[in-house]
Each structure stands twice: as structure tokens, then as C-alpha cells.
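Help needed: design a sequence for this.
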């Protein structure tokens, strides 16, 4: 891999060197470089430095300009306003940099970060024996995109799907299965739809008996105790529910075009044997105390009604353990066994207070030290067109499978409209319809800041216009189609050519891909990658309108250079969309 220094970094280094030469005490100062409408970049840091040095900002800026050699990278630099520096890059430098990225293949010259760590990403957390609904969408989509982005920067990610596979409801389910053997066929013999149908049937039947028969209810409660104490027969029946549920989970995640590794499905049950020790360690260290029989942790700053402290309950008065115990045990496992340097939780924003207390408890216990960061990536709610939480017309929670199926159906209709013109086969229409539909759902989610709610509007999601994945996918496919019309002309960089304004704008934006991914990864902000890609497609549209590539045929060198820009754009769109977990069909 050949990493390429971005043009902004090159300019930053030159400005920092010139600042140091002009004002020695400014060595290491940040020129505060940003992109500008008036020039390629604008440096604003001189104002603060001048104030600190009690110097005239414009005079200091002029001295800095005098210490910068123009030519290779910087074509022109001028003082603007009260002491800003406007920087214009040389055309040759822009194309040379892109050519180096182009030669690096699919990484596009983007370096791997130094001192990369290990991030455990907790996401996509469905519940055993229950259907996945629209509320499960964001955790899965955002978590998968964050893993793609972090992996690309060089971070090692480990997925954890903290599924709900433990608790009192399993006493009811297992007891029913114990008394009605054969209700669940072996998981290997069913598909996802059959698995969910079986689970629903057993759940409804067991609930009906549980509500109507007090003796069964008592047997179910005893079955919970047997489960928690590791009774072999009970665990075998419990495992049937887990296996059947995994078949269903995998079928839904496959529709989402996501790969879920079986070894990363580590539910609440995995920490059952650790929870008693977790409680003991917290009590012995004084982090947790007994209150009304329960083991709890108090926080001075967290208060509820009547200004009473709101505790984190580690162990209930009856000896049972709740979410806090399993979450704290998971932290111990992830830090001391997986050696994580970052714990990232992609969990509903409504759980923010819970995780704030869990993280603080882990810090007090010494399980989260200065070398480990824990972050709750709280996300907002999926809303319907009425601005309220997304429900069916009957007021029921929307099944995730139904939502995905409808998205694919709508997208396939959009693809079919243009299929004849492109010459797509029926198989391609079906496949592309799936990629476009699922991409539309993912992009609508990922293009929104995660902590915000967003409206689920399929009509808008599958639109060819506006900020949608369909617009980006069609932009990519249109670029790929150009090469079939280029004849014997091939992409080739020509740094000696003068660039048109639309070519410069496109090329400069292409050079910023790596910076954008690194910034978005550091902030856990996939919407910044989505915004970058949408702007890239928009800049390409302007370039294509203003700079003929094939017809009318430009000069040989100009055509080759423009095909080169087309190819770098296609590669960047393809890679950027892949980081977000979205496919880019070659033909649409």
C-alpha cells in the first residue's frame, strides 16, 4: 500500500513551516486551514497568533507569505481581510496527487492510522423468540457502517450482538416446550420465515397457558431457577429457542445485506457465570452498597423524584440479576479478555442514562482505565410520515421484514422503468432492485445524524433525485457506462493540462476522501461520509455537464484526463458506499 499525503496536509505543513520561520514562538501552531469558496483553502490561524504576539495580523500574514515558495503545490497565496491567507493550488499538484491515489488501487492512497486499537462494537441486538421490528433497524445499520469505516482506517473491530436470550420469559417458553415436546423442529430443517412462525406459535401458546393456569405459572417460575442454575435438560430446551431464533435473525440480516458472524452473537446468557463475581467485586471494593436488600451503586449527580438519588441496581433484593450486572460483566470480558481499547455501544438514545451509570461504575471499579474509552452511540427514533414513532395502520410495531420487502418492491419498480434502455435481464432487475431497495433504507438512516430522529418515507428514499442512495448508485452506474462508449481512449492522468473549474472542484473533493473517512470514524459520524458522497456525485454531475468526456470528442489528452477523473470518481463512490454497507451495481 502506498499512502498519499492529502493536498490539505501538504499545504498545512508548508504554512506551519512558514509560520515557524516568521514567528519562532509559533512553532507547532495550527494554521487552521479550511476549504473556502474564494480559493482552494483559507488559513485563519494567524489572527490568534498575531494577538498573542501583539503583532499586526495583516503584516504578520504578509511575512508568512514571503516565507512560502510557490510553484510545485501552491500556485498562489494572498493576504485577505484582516489577516487570512487564501491558498490556490497548482493544477499539476492536484492531478499528480490523484494519480498517486489511482495507482494505489482500492485504498485510493488512504493511509492506515498509526497506533490503531481494538474497538468492540455492540450493535444489532434482537431478542430470542421475538420478531425483529423497525426499532431494530438503526442499531444494525449504523453499527455495520461504523465497523466498515473503522476497519478501513486500520482499527481492529470485534462485533458483539448482545441478544436478549436470558430472563424470566424463558421459564414460560421452556416449560411449555418441556410439556409439549416436538413443537420446535430442529433449526437445520427450517428457513427464517418458518423459524419465526414456529417461535410465534410457541410463544402465543405458552403465554395463553401461563395466563390461564396458575400451576403452570408456578412450574414456569421454577424452570427459570433451573435455567439459571444450569440444569442440563433445561439448557437443552433453551438452546432450541436460541438456535431457531438464529435461523430467523440470519434471514433478516441477509435481507439487510449484512454478514453476522455466529461467534459474535454473545448474548446476556454468556455472562451468567460472571455476574455473581461482578457483584462480589463491586461490593467488596465499596463501589456498590446494600440498600433495602438490593446491591446498588449511587451517583450524586443523578437524581429522581423528590431529589432522591437514582441507583444502578446490580443485584435485586431476591438475588436475581438485571441488565446492569450483565453489562458490567460484558465490560470486564471485553477489556480483560478481548483487550479492547474502545467500547462502542450502538444503542437507543433512551438507554443513555443506563450506560452513563454503567460506565461510571466500571470506572470506579477500575475496569475502565485511562487507556480504555467507552462510548454510547445513542440513536434517535424511526418516525412515520406523521412525525410519530413508525407504526402500522392498526397501531402495531412494523415488522422489519415487511419494511425491507416493501423497499425492495418499490426499488425494483424504479429499476424496471429504466431496464429496457440499459438492457437489463430479469435476473439483473431482481438483483439490482434488492441492492437499490436495501441501499435506500440504509442510506436514509446513515445520511441522518445518528442522534436525530428521521422520517421513514419510501417514496423519497427510492427517488432518483435528491440526497438518496439511488441518486448515488445511478451516478456510479452512469460513470461505468461511459467507458463502454470511450472507444480506444483509456483513463490517463495528464498533469500538464490546465483544469477547468468543474474539473478542479471535482478533483479537490476526491482528494479529501481519506480525511473525511478518518474524521467521520473518529466522531462515529457515518452521515459525514454520506454527505461527502452526495457532494461528490453532485460535483460529478456538474463536471459531466460542463466538460465533455466522449461527445463532442475533446482532444486526446483532455479526453484521457477526463476519463481518469471519471474512474477515480467511480472508485471513490464504490469504496465510500461499501464502507456504509451499500452496493453499487455496475449497470442500472
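Sure. Designed sequence:
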Amino acid at each position: 500500500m502506498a499512502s498519499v499525503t492529502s493536498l490539505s496536509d501538504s499545504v498545512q505543513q508548508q504554512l506551519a513551516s512558514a509560520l515557524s520561520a516568521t514567528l519562532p514562538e509559533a512553532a507547532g501552531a495550527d494554521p487552521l486551514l479550511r476549504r473556502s469558496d474564494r480559493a482552494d483553502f483559507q488559513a485563519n490561524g494567524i489572527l490568534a497568533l498575531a494577538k498573542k504576539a501583539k503583532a499586526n495580523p495583516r503584516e504578520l500574514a504578509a511575512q508568512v507569505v514571503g516565507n512560502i515558495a510557490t510553484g510545485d503545490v501552491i500556485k498562489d497565496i494572498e493576504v485577505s481581510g484582516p489577516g487570512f491567507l487564501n491558498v490556490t493550488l497548482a493544477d499539476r499538484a492536484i492531478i499528480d496527487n490523484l494519480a498517486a491515489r489511482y495507482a494505489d488501487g482500492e485504498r485510493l492512497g488512504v493511509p492506515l492510522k498509526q497506533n490503531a486499537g481494538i474497538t468492540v462494537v455492540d450493535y444489532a441486538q434482537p431478542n430470542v423468540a421475538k420478531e425483529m421490528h423497525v426499532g431494530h433497524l438503526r442499531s444494525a445499520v449504523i453499527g455495520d457502517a461504523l465497523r466498515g469505516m473503522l476497519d478501513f482506517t486500520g482499527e481492529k473491530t470485534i462485533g458483539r450482538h448482545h441478544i436478549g436470550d436470558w430472563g424470566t420469559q424463558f421459564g414460560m417458553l421452556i416449560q411449555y416446550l418441556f410439556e409439549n415436546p416436538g413443537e420446535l423442529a430442529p433449526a437445520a430443517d427450517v428457513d427464517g420465515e418458518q423459524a419465526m412462525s414456529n417461535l410465534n406459535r410457541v410463544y402465543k401458546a405458552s403465554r395463553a397457558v401461563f395466563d390461564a393456569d396458575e400451576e403452570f405459572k408456578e412450574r414456569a417460575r421454577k424452570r427459570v431457577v433451573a435455567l439459571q442454575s444450569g440444569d442440563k435438560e433445561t439448557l437443552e430446551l433453551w438452546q432450541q429457542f436460541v438456535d431457531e431464533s438464529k435461523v430467523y435473525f440470519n434471514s433478516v440480516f441477509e435481507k439487510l445485506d449484512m454478514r453476522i458472524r455466529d461467534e459474535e452473537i454473545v448474548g446476556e446468557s454468556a455472562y451468567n457465570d460472571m455476574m455473581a463475581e461482578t457483584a462480589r467485586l463491586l461490593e467488596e471494593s465499596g463501589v456498590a452498597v446494600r440498600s433495602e436488600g438490593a446491591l446498588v451503586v449511587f451517583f450524586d449527580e443523578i437524581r429522581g423524584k423528590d431529589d432522591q438519588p437514582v441507583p444502578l441496581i446490580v443485584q435485586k433484593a431476591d438475588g436475581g440479576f438485571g441488565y446492569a450486572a450483565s453489562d458490567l460483566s460484558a465490560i470486564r470480558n471485553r477489556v480483560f479478555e478481548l483487550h479492547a481499547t474502545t467500547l462502542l455501544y450502538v444503542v437507543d438514545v433512551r438507554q443513555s442514562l443506563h450506560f452513563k451509570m454503567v460506565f461510571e461504575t466500571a470506572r470506579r471499579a477500575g475496569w475502565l482505565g485511562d487507556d480504555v474509552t467507552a462510548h454510547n452511540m445513542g440513536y434517535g427514533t424511526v418516525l412515520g410520515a406523521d412525525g410519530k414513532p413508525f407504526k402500522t395502520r392498526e397501531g402495531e410495531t412494523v415488522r422489519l421484514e415487511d419494511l425491507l420487502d416493501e423497499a425492495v418492491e418499490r426499488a425494483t419498480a424504479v429499476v424496471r422503468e429504466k431496464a429496457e434502455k440499459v438492457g437489463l435481464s430479469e435476473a439483473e432487475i431482481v438483483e439490482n432492485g434488492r441492492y437499490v431497495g436495501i441501499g435506500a433504507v440504509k442510506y436514509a438512516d446513515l445520511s441522518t445524524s445518528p442522534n436525530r430522529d428521521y422520517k421513514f418515507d419510501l417514496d423519497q428514499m427510492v427517488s432518483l433525485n435528491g440526497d438518496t442512495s439511488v441518486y448515488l448508485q445511478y451516478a456510479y452506474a452512469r460513470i461505468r457506462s461511459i467507458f463502454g462508449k470511450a472507444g480506444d481512449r483509456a483513463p490517463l492522468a495528464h498533469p500538464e493540462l490546465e483544469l477547468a473549474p468543474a474539473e478542479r472542484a471535482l478533483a479537490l473533493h476526491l482528494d479529501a476522501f481519506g480525511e473525511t473517512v478518518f474524521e467521520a470514524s473518529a466522531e462515529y459520524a457515518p452521515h459525514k461520509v454520506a454527505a461527502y458522497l452526495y457532494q461528490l456525485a453532485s460535483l460529478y454531475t456538474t463536471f459531466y455537464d460542463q466538460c465533455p468526456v466522449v461527445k463532442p470528442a475533446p482532444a486526446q489528452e483532455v479526453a484521457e484526463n477526463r476519463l481518469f477523473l471519471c474512474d477515480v470518481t467511480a472508485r471513490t463512490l464504490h469504496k465510500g458506499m461499501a464502507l456504509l454497507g451499500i452496493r453499487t451495481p455496475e449497470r442500472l
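Residues 232-255 form the longest helix (24 residues).
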